[in-house]
Amino acid sequence: MDKTPQDIWIIIIAMGVGTYLIRLSFIGLIGDRTLPPWLLRMLRYTPVAVLPGVVAPMLVPSDGASDPMQLAAALVTLVVGLTTRNVLYAIIAGFGLFFGAGALIG
Hints:
The protein is mainly alpha-helical. The protein has a domain of about 55 residues. Helix content is about 80%, strand content about 0%. Helix 4 runs antiparallel to helix 5. The two termini are about 40 Å apart.
C-alpha cells in the first residue's frame, strides 16, 4: 500500500500531537504534586527497562540473521557494565569493540 506525501505528513502531525498530549497530561495532572515514594522508586527503573527494549530489536532482527559483531559488542558491553558498574565504561567498551574490530576486520 503506497502512501502519498500528504498521508505521511498527516501521520507525522498526528503522532506529534498525540505525543504532546500524552506528555501534557502527565505534566498537567501531576506536575505540581509530590509523587509518593513507591512511585518514585518504580520510576527509577524506567531507563533500565527501556534500554533493553531499544537494543534488543537491533541484536535479534525479525529475519533471524543476527550480526556476530553486534552480538559480541553487546556481550562485551554487558560484561564491562556488570564488572565495573559504570555505564560510561560499558558504552565505550562496546563501541570500541564494534567500531575498532569492525575497522580491523573490514
